Amino acid sequence: MFRAFTRIALAAVLLAAPMAVQAADIPPITYRERVLDNGLRVLSGVDATTPNVTVQVWYGVGSKDDPEGRSGFAHLFEHMMFKATRNMPSETLDRMTEDVGGFNNASTWDDFTNYYEVVPANHLERLLWAEAERLGSLVVDAEIFNSERDVVKEELRQRILAAPYGRLFGLMIPQASYQEHPYRRPGIGSIAELDAATIDDVRAFHRDYYRPDNAVLIVIGNFNEAQLDAWVDKYFAPLKTPETPLKRVDAVEPARTGPGVYDGYGPNVPLPAVVLTWLGAEAASADAPALKVLDAILSAGKSSRLYNSLVYEQQIAVEAFSQADLPQQPGLFAVGAILSSGQTVEAGEAALLAQVARLREAPPTEAELNEARNELVTGALRERETVDGRAFALGYAWATQGDPAKANTELAELAAVTGADVQRVAQTYLAADRRMTIRYRPESERPAGQAAVEPAPPAAQPVAFDGEIVTLAPESERQAPPPVGEPADPVLPTPAQMVLDNGLRVIVARSSDLPLVSAALIVRAGAWADPQGLAGAMSMTAAMLTEGTTTRTAPQIAQQIEALGASLSSSAGLESVSVSLTSMSDKVEPAFAILSDVVRNPAFAPEELERQTAQALDGMSVAYEDPGQLSAMAVGPVIFAGTAFGHPADGTPASLPRLTPESLKTLHDRHFRPDNAILVLSGDVSPEQGFALARQAFADWARPTEALPAQPQIAPAARRQVVVIDLPGAGQAAVRLAKPAISRRDGAYYPAIVANSVLGGGYSARLNQEIRIKRGLSYGAGSGLSARRTTGAFQAQAQTKNESAPEVVDLISAEMTRLAADPVTTEELTARKSVLIGAFGRALGTAGGLGGVLGELALQDVPLEEISAYTAKVEAVSADEVRAFAAQRLSPGDAAVIVVGDAEAFIEGLRSRAPDLRRIPAADLDLEATGLGAAAP
Which terminal CB of the chain, N or C, has fewer other CB atoms within 10 Å? Predict the structure, then answer.
């Protein structure tokens, strides 16, 4: 339900009257539609500018259709659809997508389940055949069922039980908000109900809902329309539609007769939270556009009412949010907050109600309306950058409103919303006496004598399946997939660059006619520049850039940027700071003026630093309760100890309060200078336009006379150590093996990334095969290799139930060892290279992705021509080079092992493998200290 998550003169104009976008300026999604005799709906759109194609099948079955007593069934079935069919062994779909440079995935929502792939266009026929296979002849057997049920349990532990607010968003909000409608059931289900399911239940579910007349096939990309029609007729038209009518949910949620309160508690809740919900509208309602605008006014961006009031002015919340949940049947409207340390749920509820009351009592201003519209339109533009984004928009409109054409009328409907409309829907839906208040607090605050009771699963109707049971055909009898067609040649962007007189390097690459521009100003200094004892100083410097300049306050920056429908953000890593801007192309000039101002003239006001520090500390208190986040934060201090990378880039609870405006200003003055920066522009912008924008905004940025600070040279030695961070009550354990790696300019870079792709770079890579697919021990396992300017890091990771942590450590270590011992087969090597090449090509296909690639190349002093050489260099890597790199750099023998979880469940098993392990209570963790703090006895 809550999915995951110019100058002063112009400023005055922007504050008074944000520019409204015209829906007519946004190109529609072009598509055609046909319906087969069996009821399958087919939507298709040709895009000859891409070498790729997306194939998506959307089914009209979601979590609301789960049988009573079988919550989580639609989601479980989503997993099973990736396994075997009559003619495809399990994981064949991954071979057809990931192994050729594409990807596949799926998601389960309240009303629908969607399956989607992006592949090189010459693989289109094979994907159509495969989708028809799993619609018409899916294998549902006990082995597959049990394996995927175990994986779903690990997903539940990771997303719901281990995440500090997973229970609130994933379980409590739907359960508390609905009385009768099946939207009340959590989509991920419960372990008890999953355990109670039978194989007959699953087979009956597929028979009832996976049928042509309950599906839409969407194909967008580079293909011939006549050929597509012939293939669809060949593979999908023969599929039969059952004679039995489709099952449909006809439950009606009763109107609320008064307010309600739901008190929830969790074992790892560092900050209290409160959420208010009201029964809302359905997606097709005439009120839906006004509710979307209302939602944006309340919580879209830092100029929104909830952020301004609760987070910025009152400082009673670290996060405030709203959501107009508009599913197929009437949904919810919600507002909520994760409260600051020391605040109460009662204070949060009162502050939220006050903002809701404001909109009930008076309409929003025209400026607020225009800002909300611009933000919504820019979001739609970002979605339409990719073939899969355009297909999603069509599918979502079909699944929730019954008409894909709604994807093209939505923007006009939003533009027509008036202030009176917003006030009217606030009055209609958000009555104070019809709210449900959900209060979420730590388990320690549960009233004495009140036990935590897990409700028994409701009784389920027994099912006896009497239909056809499909099995995998003997290999000699299987139908072979269609052949691969002729590839479409990609058109790579050609970047242009220049250096301004002040030393600023400017890179521009036109990549799209979609009216969207992405820009990033990159400074060549990151956490390595943090002064001793001030961990997180550069990260806080980056955060403060958008929190006020010498001529703009923080609220003015937010209001002016968001009035343009643009987004502006800043962040710091180990080696750089990036200030990123996304804007519609007709508004990029005023947006650029604000970008220039925040980069060059931050105020570092004491009150803003105090506010940002408090928010960062509260955010850390949340991260310290999440096994995955905490294990990631520990990597740098463990493997880079004693170097400029050997502290958390975002700081620690002890270091952040030591930061002062003067210390941040000193860092900014030293490192933020034009000859230490790179400006990258991409999207709907020509080199001439980009260079002109750069000159206008940055040509008068003076270069200091002092020499640039020296960049550090960091080359730590890998060292075996085992660290356990004990987090009692954690819903899962996070396991990481980490060690220093190589620089980006190392001659072994390409063998390194291919080796990582084989080991853990995707669903079909070895770690996920062994840990998730074969054993069901994790929702996902993988590895990553970050090669930076001076050095890099390798990490392999998985999250698993606490008691399985030692086994997962063994499995990761074994795969690292095997990679160095046995040569990679030609077939596997080709597939894992394709993963890299495909992902690289897709990154170049969006304005932000292209800008990110170019910015990284420039930051690492790699020639920009590398974007044209990348494919050939990946293809040239041999199996011997992969094995040699793994032997030299990826041995588990000198890797650090970091495990975060409830140590009581795994400490003895891990200690038998590593008697010298260090066990550090999470409450005593000090990420700045040698050894991370005092170890427990």
Answer: C
The pLDDT value given to residue 808? 98
Considering the chain, what is the average pLDDT of its residues? 93
Indicate the pairing of strand 918-921 with strand 721-726.
parallel
Q: Tell me which amino acid residue 636 is.
A: G
Q: What is the pLDDT of residue 937?
A: 67
Angle at which helix 606-623 crosses helix 537-544, to 10 degrees, equals: 120
Taken as a whole, the chain contains a residue count of: 937
Q: How far is CA 31 from CA 112, 405, 412, 515, 930, in A?
A: 21, 9, 18, 20, 60
Q: How far is CA 51 from CA 196, 246, 841, in A?
A: 46, 38, 9
Q: How confident is the model at residue 729 (pLDDT cuts 50, 70, 90)?
A: very high
- Around 104, how many Cα atoms within 13 Å sit in the side-chain half-sphere? 24
* Average pLDDT of the segment spanning 785-796: 94
Q: What are phi and psi of 275, to 5 degrees?
A: -130, 135
590/11 Cα distance (integer angstroms): 9
pLDDT score at 16 = 31
**Which tens digit of pLDDT belongs to each residue from 420-431?**
999 999 999 999
199-209 vs 73-80: helix axis angle to the nearest 10?
A: 90
Q: Strand 733-740's sheet: what is its strand order?
A: 781-787, 792-800, 733-740, 896-901, 721-726, 918-921
Q: What's the whole-number mean pLDDT along residues 111-130?
A: 97
Backbone φ and ψ for 444, nearest 5 degrees, come out as -65, -20
Residues 929 and 535 sit within 8 Å (Cβ to Cβ): no
| Calpha distance 134→81 (Å, rounded) | 7
**Are 575 and 526 contacting, i.e. CB atoms less than 8 angstroms apart?**
yes
- Count of CB atoms situated within 10 Å of the CB of 408: 18
Prediction pTM value: 0.91
Question: What is the spatial distance between Cα 271 and Cα 347, in angstroms, rounded to a whole number?
Answer: 13
Q: Which pLDDT band holds residue 463 (cuts at 50, 70, 90)? A: confident
pLDDT at residue 348 is higher than 90: yes
Q: At what angle do helices 805-821 and 749-760 cross, to 10 degrees?
A: 140
Does the pLDDT at position 479 exceed 80?
yes
Closest CA to 807 of 681, 922, 906: 906
Q: Which of 482-486, 563-567, 857-861 has the lowest mean pLDDT?
A: 482-486
Element (H, E) at 640: none
Report DSSP state, residue 484: P
CA distance 861 to 145: 50
Lowest mean pLDDT among 466-470, 484-488, 704-708, 776-780: 484-488
Q: Is the model's pLDDT at 15 over the cut of 60? A: no
The DSSP string of 508-521 is EEE--SSSEEEEEE
Distances (CA, A) of 420 to 88, 291, 294, 745, 794: 56, 12, 11, 59, 55
Place of tokens 């008691």: 803
The structure tokens listed for 464 are 């006896």
Orientation angle between helical segments 749-760 and 866-875, nearest 10 degrees = 60
What's the token pair of residue 364?
A: 């929003």
Residue 924 and residue 71: Cα distance in Å, rounded? 39
Alpha-carbon distance of 84 to 90, in angstroms, equals 4
Decide if pLDDT at 108 tops 80: yes
Contacts for 927 with CB less than 8 Å, ≥ 6 apart: 535, 633, 634, 637, 647, 648, 652
What spatial distance separates the first Cα and last Cα of the chain, rounded to whole Å? 44
Give the integer Cα–Cα distance in Å for 285 and 590: 36
Q: What pLDDT shows up at residue 18?
A: 42
User: How far, in Å, CA of 870 to CA of 753, rounded?
Assistant: 12
Decide: 850 and 517 in contact? Cβ < 8 Å: no
Beta bridge partners of 522: 578, 678
Cβ–Cβ under 8 Å, residues 400 and 328: yes
